[in-house]
Write the structure tokens for this entry.
Amino acid sequence: MAHIELPDPDAKIVARRDAIVAELKALVGEAIVVGDDDGRRAYETDALTAYRRMPLAVVLPRSTEEVSRVLRYCHEKGIKVVPRGAGTSLCGGALPAEDSIVVCISKMSRVLELDYESRFARVEAGITNLAISGAVGERGFFYAPDPSSQLACTLAGNLAMNSGGAHCLKYGVTTNNVLGLRMVLITGEVVDIGGAHLDADGYDMLGLIVGSEGQFGIITEATVRIIKSAEGARPMLLGFDSSQAAGRCVSAIIASGIIPVAIEFMDKPAIEVCESFAHAGYPLDVEALLIVEVEGSEAEITGLLDHIKDIAVQNGAGKVLISDGPIQSAKIWKGRKSAFGAIGRISDYYCMDGTIPLSRLPEVLVAISSICERHRLKVANIFHAGDGNLHPLILYNANDPDESERAELAGAEILTLCVEVGGCLTGEHGVGIEKRDLMRVQFSDTDLALQMRIKTAFDPQWLLNPSKVFPLESAASIDKAA
Amino acid sequence: MNEALRPAADWELASMIAGFASRNQPIEIVGNRTKARVGRPMQTAATITTQSMRGIRLYEPTELVMSAQTGTPLAQIEAELAGNGQMLAFEPIDLGPATGGNAGQQSIGGVFASNLSGSRRVVAGAARDHLLGIKGVNGRAEVFKSGGRVMKNVTGYDLARGVAGSWGTLAVMTEVTFKVLPWPETATTLVYPGLPDDIAVELLCAAMGTPFEVSGTAHITAGLVRRLSNISLAAPGRPLTAVRIEHFAGSVAYRKERLADALKAYGAPIELDYNETQNFWGELRQLRIVADLSTCLWRISTAPRNGPKVVEAITRHVSAANAYYDWSGGLVWIEVPASADAGSSDIRRAIAVHGGHATLIRAEPQVRASIDVFQPQTPTLERLTRGLKSAFDPQGILNPGRMYAGV
């Protein structure tokens, strides 16, 4: 799996590597500049491990000021910059290049201010997602977006990709939970946007920056909303003998006026792997499983789960299992949240992230099966059913070039299908390099040109996270000095 | 003013804009004109309205999604949603009565172009948080789209959010696709009378800090409270601090008791039933308590616990100012006596000290022409603003200068 084109590095920059490393060290100190081969190798890929490139150098800044100095230097010298958080991107969003400097802000992880009255946390952007909830948990608050990688992934990465998670059906994704940002532009200028108040003034720069995949600037601080946790939460498992029945049940739950915190779907192959990993009590004799979680007081939870149980039984749920307590609830979520890792133990996989209108779910699942069958590949389906965000995991052998190529072809067909039924290429992982060349499936040249002009407004020379998001030939067509 | 041009489709709109662009003529962009008096006055060669682009294009109640052409009246959309027990959860603000017009006139395009969200914003998010996708025409007369109809979408930059709240200065939206949510089964409101502003906001923040998903948190100062139509609330003339709970009936009953218990230090609340609750928050949504047209009206967003400090800083200099707080103190609607600068210097100074931003919503055109209507920006942010404007509308022909001079 390696047929995504990566541009040739700028030989003149690469030839100056030693001098550039020395200049960076003089600029911000030796301690935070990584120039040796072993050190750089730790940054040569992200969670899309099929692609690897040794960066020119890595800088690990400790302050906004240091980020500013490095970017100003890169701007003056015309050196490309790849921003990085924890490197958990599944789409190659943090993949470096031989002529690029990685600026990794994982050292900037302090909590700067907590305000429970106005309900915000101001943090450095290198903090991990889970650490924000950890910092406010003892007061019963949490930070809502919860990507499966939340133990490792940084807020900076979440902001770059507009990350979601299982619980965003109720609480929204990253963009819905950010109040303010401090960002360093490629010129080294520091700009503050928004603050501790709702709905920042002027154009929605926050909304544009969140999800811009590190192409507008490097975010060093953020003010995020914190929310009081519900009194309690409990999941239930609903087993069905067909994916179609499970899909109908999701629609029926939502039509009843209940918005659960999460509705997660797994098909049989996914159930088997996750159950053998987490021993969560998932039924093994069903074709499709829903995990539905509701929140509230004990009485509210019981009432809602009973109501959902009735709906599920009417829609053909053969198995209904309500969690009997916190230990089982934790196991149920452990199985789901470690699903990618559990599948990774038995096979290499290629994780898709398309989103579809829920009503098209049955036909899309049939089509995914037939696409993978045609390419002689197995697939396990896991997804956020409440919002139609699919994660088909295409299983393949990374050491087999033919199989790798078939996996990429099958993935592209699945994503094209998602767009054709009214959905999109990526619901929460981002475009990165992985889906870059499929952007024309979803967007016209006019749509892409408009997005690229906005990129140019933030980064006129296109130095920040280059070769991502836009097809290379589209990016080449825009007048970057404009 | 000339008769407005009324394109019926995006291609027709694009050809009109192309014509004005070729002559480098600026255009005023409007929907139903309910917000036409907001912003800096503009000099334009013509007006284009979205009124003839109307109709609901898609409604899937089980997917919580609707698409409509931007000229569609909000009233039509809300009626259609109500028929399926659903709503726009962000409670779009209706500027009609507070700016000298009628209530219930705005178009769905105007709702998203202004991004003015009501009381439920604290729990449900802003208008732009519900906007999933747009189609529109930019200042280069290009038809474009962004986003789509699905709930989660990070494919490319989120231009839909960017255009939301841009007051027609970046592009003319022709179709919007947005998220809808179920109407709560029932609702109630606890009203605490007689609290001073700082204690009231303390109460509201405490209510937001409970797990009971409070969906409205407002404080009406004594100077405005008599404008409420609920006589028993209005007549005593005391300030009122209101907390709304919405959910299934059993949950509302339970949460109301728990919340009252958590807030018992603030006194015994008056309880509003479902109809009284709908009426009370409905009047706030229409800004009927700040609709004294002889005054100027500002909208301020700040950190919730700074709301009373901002108001205190303003009233120290402008004693006749009257405030209504929402968003647990973070949103302040404040009426100030009409004057040449509408109290701008005092208000801007208060914001500079306490953070946030202020927008002048109601004032005579000559006032709006002479002061900053929207929050002034730092030079770097202003450059990004100009860059964004240029990416959409390089000749600056769409609602030019409405938000900022030269943008």
